Amino acid sequence: MFKDWCEIEETPHTPRKALVTLSERDDGRAVIEQELAERVRSHYDGAGCSMSLSQAAAASLRSLISPMICCAAAGMLVPGP
Predict the structure, then answer these.
(1) How many beta carbons lie within 10 A of that of residue 42, not counting itself?
(2) Where are the beta strands (DSSP E) in the chain?
(3) Whole-angstrom Cα distance, residue 64 to residue 51?
(4) Domain locations in the chain?
(5) Is the confidence at residue 31, as pLDDT, over 80?
(6) Can you tell me the distance from the alpha carbon of 43 to that of 37, in angstroms, rounded to the nearest whole number?
(7) From CA 42, how far away is CA 51, in angstroms rounded?
(8) Separation in Å, CA 64 to CA 37, 57, 59
(9) Could you tell me the pLDDT band of residue 65, with boundaries at 50, 70 and 90?
(10) What count of Cα atoms within 13 Å lies in the side-chain half-sphere of residue 78?
(11) Alpha-carbon distance values, 8 to 5, 20, 22, 77 (Å)
(12) Do the beta carbons of residue 6 and residue 24 sit within 8 Å?
């Protein structure tokens, strides 16, 4: 899904490490919109949450379960500045 959504650039940092940058494609969201909705829906269903949540309630729930950190770790998506 990420390959359809984002341009992926890998820059070697050390022999064992690399910086991987994902930049959203211009049409990326439109391409993956349905698949993303299915994945998010199945995640909430799996957590025992109802999809009948309002947007505000879903956002509130998401903020409670999201990690609040100032740096990125492998595999994490963090908001830009």
Answers:
(1) 10
(2) 6-14, 17-24
(3) 17
(4) 2-65
(5) yes
(6) 10
(7) 9
(8) 20, 11, 9
(9) low
(10) 14
(11) 9, 7, 5, 13
(12) yes
